[in-house]
Amino acid sequence: MLLYVHGIPKILHYANELAHIEDPFGLGPSLSLWAAIFAEVLCPIAIVLGVGTRLACLPIIVVLLIAMLAVHPDWSVAEGQFGWLLLIIFMTIGLCGTGRWGLLAPVRKETP
Question: The whole model's pTM is what?
């Protein structure tokens, strides 16, 4: 859902996203957008493939925390429920890993 709802639209509408992206830390809109694209496109793809799953969760968690705490601190729980739910999901995946659910799991050699 993160890839579909947030990541792909950032790539398809890059110029519009660049004009409207929040820059809470003053890094510049371009760097902020590329960080978001990395966390919302490349990292979910790595997680689906089961490649570096735990490591791929870290940028997503950071971007979600920034979005929820720095960009949208005025949101109520109801307004931010999707973000908080994603945060819980990716923290859980980060702790537990992909396991046998990654698309590349049959290719990986499992150790007993």
Answer: 0.85
